[in-house]
Amino acid sequence: MATSKTIAFILFLITLVASSNAAKKAITQPLAPAILIFGDSSVDTGNNNYVTDANFKSNHIPYGVDLPGKAASGRFSNGKLYCDIIASKLHIKELVPPFLQPNLSDSEIVTGVNFASAGSGFDEQTMLLSKAIPLADQPTMFKSYITRLKGIVGEKKAMEIINGAIVIVSAGTNDFILNYYDFPTRVEEYPKVSDYQNFVLGKLEKFVKELYNLGCRKMSVGGLSPMGCLPIQVTTKLSKGIPKRRCIKSQNKDAVLYNKKLQKLLPAIEASLPGSKIVYANVYDPMNDMIKHPAKYGFKETKIGCCGGAGLSDMCNSQTKLCSNHSEYMFFDSIHPSLATYTHIANSSYSTLFKLLDA
């Protein structure tokens, strides 16, 4: 017959195992019901694969070379994008699927999808060159998503999911590069870049309010990166007689001013939308620090892309030369960050984004 000490020990072991399993479950429990993504190529996980006229697509090698199975999914990098990494950190899912992907499962719909399109922007004129899905049209896709979500979980539960979802908005760079710097089609209308910034921010405000009206409450809105340090921008200036590869200070200065305006605008938008929580996602400072202190992040190259080098094309293909160590390059092609860079940005911004979980 078992002694009282033996029984007590067995009960102790059972309690210990149960506690361990409970702790494990708590750790892997999703921190938010879903994640919803809007924007441009910085967060497009493959929607452009299904946009026939889109000028920018990455559903071919060497893109995705560091994804499972080396799948060229349509992500403009060698691996996961910022939004995928955030989704993983929130224990929601490892990869956020594009909404236009055929045969999306109900479980994928319930935990959130991606509406972003490479080449998109807040300014409708941006899409004249890129043929992307405009930011202004992405809420229409979102409405279709809501309809399907309601069909799966019912109207009440669907709105609970959307209200609690983490929403990421990342766009703006294309507006300035395609309309103001490289193809100055907006300069005549907006001679001062500050005026064009106000125009874009007006579009951004309208966009955020539309998402709110559709049920979004927890939003992270990204600022501009150091645009003047993008390899393609540096090369453009180099081809015009600049003697060596260096960042374009004026474009970076513009990005800083835009970001300051955005940081001032977002609290005002939040104050006008009851129950909302809107945070600013700082992309500029972490990327600027990577450029200034590359060794700190394990980078050996910050001025050219891992594939395609410093070409004027932002795209890579099967014929372009690929670097041997992708994690040593800040950029994967001449405009898009590498997986290593996206990982650093996600790590640096997570504490800010975490504030949305308490809202």
Automatic annotation (TrEMBL):
CDD domains to which the protein is assigned, alphabetical: SGNH_plant_lipase_like (cd01837)
Keyword Chaperone: no
Pfam families in the cross-refs: Lipase_GDSL
The organism's place on the tree of life at top rank: Eukaryota
Keyword line: Signal
SUPFAM superfamilies: SGNH hydrolase
Secretion signal span: 1-22
Listed PANTHER family: (RAPE) HYPOTHETICAL PROTEIN, GDSL ESTERASE/LIPASE EXL3
Assigned protein family: Belongs to the 'GDSL' lipolytic enzyme family.
Protein name: GDSL esterase/lipase
Species assigned in the record: Eruca vesicaria subsp. sativa (Garden rocket)
